[in-house]
Design a protein that fits this description.
Layout (H helix, E strand, L loop, with lengths): L1 H11 L17 H10 L6 H23 L1 E5 L14 E5 L14 E5 L13 H12 L9 E9 L3 E4 L7 E2 L2 E4 L14 E4 L4 E5 L21 E2 L3 E10 L5 E2 L6 E2 L4
Length: 259
Amino acid sequence: MDTEAELTQRGHSSPEQGEGRPRSAFPRNRPLRALRALFGSRGDSGPWKRAGVLGVACTVFLLLVSNFVVQPFLIPSRSMEPTLQVGDRILVNKLAYRFGSVPQRGDVVVFDGTGSFVREPARGNPVGDALHGAASALGLAAPSDTDFVKRVVGVGGDDVVCCDAGGRIRVNGVPVEEPYLYPGDTPSKVPFRIAVPLGTLWVMGDHRSQSRDSRDHLGEPGGGMVPVEKVIGRADWTGWPPSRWTSLSGTAATGGPHG
């Protein structure tokens, strides 16, 4: 009886579960085992696993940043020359209009042209579309056929006229100087007078003779206007190639009424 009681007491105070050892719902070495399982142990394919995990983590992080903060955007055409050239990667600030701010005249914006510049695109291969979307979001592939980059010329409530006796666009009766226009281009060879509805934008490319913009959609539903809610973000910087690193904030028009 005494021996059995002694053994029972020792069983309750063994080194594995003694009173002097802190108890936890999770073994102390479980995080270590998890890390070893994730990255591998010495002598196996650990370096390759680490590289793969880091690559996936970096890609996921960049996609999150691209979706919510700043997105690289590859310029596919000449419509915004000389401000933007074919092959440039611009950085689109997706937070620019998130907290009550709205596009202003002179802003270079990226927008979804579905319903204004293009019809609803036909559905393609879901896997291919997803891969292309991811590559586009990272600036590695051309953007979607429904995404456009243009300059805001008129905002909701503006009266935009082209052209006055001096060959300039007038906004609300005030002539606008456009130093960003492609050398040799005129503000527009097509005359127009537009009252921009509230909540929409009148947009044009800087290379007017090479740009399909609001002027080309006057007779279509929407009249060439881009709804503000379709704006993806404001192009704030040219990020690539390094020789063209620059801010786009200094390329706005001069003259004209203030927004």
